[in-house]
Design goal:
The protein is of the alpha/beta class. Helices cover 26% and strands 13% of the residues. The chain has helices at 36-42, 98-101, 126-134, 154-172, 184-196, 232-235, 237-241, 246-250, 294-299, 301-311, and strands spanning 14-16, 93-96, 112-115, 142-146, 177-182, 202-208, 260-266, 285-289. An 8-stranded mixed beta sheet has the order 1-8-7-6-5-3-4-2, sandwiched between helices. Helix 4 crosses helix 5. The protein is globular. It starts with 13 loop residues before the first strand and ends with a helix.
Length: 315
């Protein structure tokens, strides 16, 4: 199923910056075209389609410079584990396994765990699951977590990812999984891997539009804000550039361990307007989608094709 977005064709042109360094033909944008509060409303959301309009500012006289959380797409509660074959202890939700996907039991491929962005949930990846099932993946190889609250801190994501991935490994009786994160989920995965030294658990990690080197939408400084801006004490440019801050230290070695790393970014991603290569990782295969915005990097057919090629091992 083709994803549609302004300025992108059905099949997004691809350039691989690890080989060419090209960013493609990004169209010019009015630097005042998007307000920071509107961007933070959507940060990390695969499939957020609200038009972003207004002037570039910090909220003006708004008593709450905004930063409201975006709505979830799943109909069930965030900590509802009814679509999982194991008990989450009411810490998180998600989906996965052959019963949920309606396939035969057993592993066809190494399990994939999808990790959503800020304000979103596991249902962002329903289309990805269908794509993989149609190409031979069993339901026991497809999993997605929903974090316990819409805007989770990196510490919260670390704890919940460790529990979720361990349960998937135990349920599938496999040592290693693949991880696919979008936006905030990318740095959440990286932080968990580093803090808990779980690289041996992960064969491949794919980052889709992750703020690996920060985002301008958090503004100056390295300070948590209200609502969906509570992550800004991790993800601002200042956090990425200041020794001792977690994101700076995380980037001391951007692709550690035996894990294979891949990233995808779009040339029209407003979250990285002032630092376009922020999603890339040194040592990874870094792919650029010409004309793709933040959401299209997560949902496009081109992205799904790349994921399948990277993670299916030719099966």
């Amino acid at each position: 199923m083709a994803a549609a977005w302004a300025g992108c064709s059905e099949r997004t042109p691809v350039s691989d910056s690890s080989r060419t360094g090209a960013e493609g033909g990004a169209r010019e944008r009015d630097p005042r075209a998007v307000r920071r509060r509107d961007l933070l409303r959507a940060v990390g959301g695969v499939g957020v389609s609200t038009p972003l309009t207004g002037c570039l500012d910090d909220g003006g006289g708004d008593p709450d410079p905004g930063l409201p959380e975006s709505a979830s797409s799943c109909s069930r509660d965030r900590a509802d584990d009814a679509a999982l074959p194991f008990d989450s202890g009411e810490e998180y939700g998600g989906w996965g396994g052959h019963t949920h996907h309606g396939t035969a039991a057993g592993l066809s491929h190494r399990p994939i765990v999808f990790v959503h962005g800020n304000g979103r949930d596991a249902c962002d990846f329903d289309g990805h699951a269908g794509y993989f099932v149609e190409r031979g993946y069993s339901g026991d190889a497809l999993w997605a977590i929903t974090f316990g609250r819409e805007t989770s801190t990196h510490a919260e994501m670390r704890e919940q990812l460790d529990s979720f991935v361990e349960r998937v490994r135990r349920y599938t009786d496999t040592e290693r999984v693949d991880l696919v994160g979008h936006s905030l989920g990318v740095t959440g995965i990286r932080y968990w891997l580093a803090e808990d030294d779980r690289y041996e658990w992960v064969d491949s990690m794919v980052g889709l539009a992750g703020a690996n080197h920060g985002t301008w939408t958090c503004g100056p400084g390295c300070v948590a804000g209200p609502g969906s801006a509570r992550i800004c004490d991790f993800l601002s440019h200042a956090c990425a550039d200041t020794p001792g801050r977690p994101l700076y230290e995380l980037n001391a070695d951007e692709t550690p361990g035996p894990t294979e790393y891949y990233t995808i970014r779009g040339t029209d991603d407003d979250f990285f307007r002032t630092r376009p290569t922020s999603p890339e990782l040194d040592g990874a295969e870094n792919v650029v989608l010409d004309g793709a915005d933040h959401d299209a990097v997560g949902t496009s057919d081109t992205t799904r094709e790349l994921l399948f090629g990277w993670l299916s091992d030719g099966q």
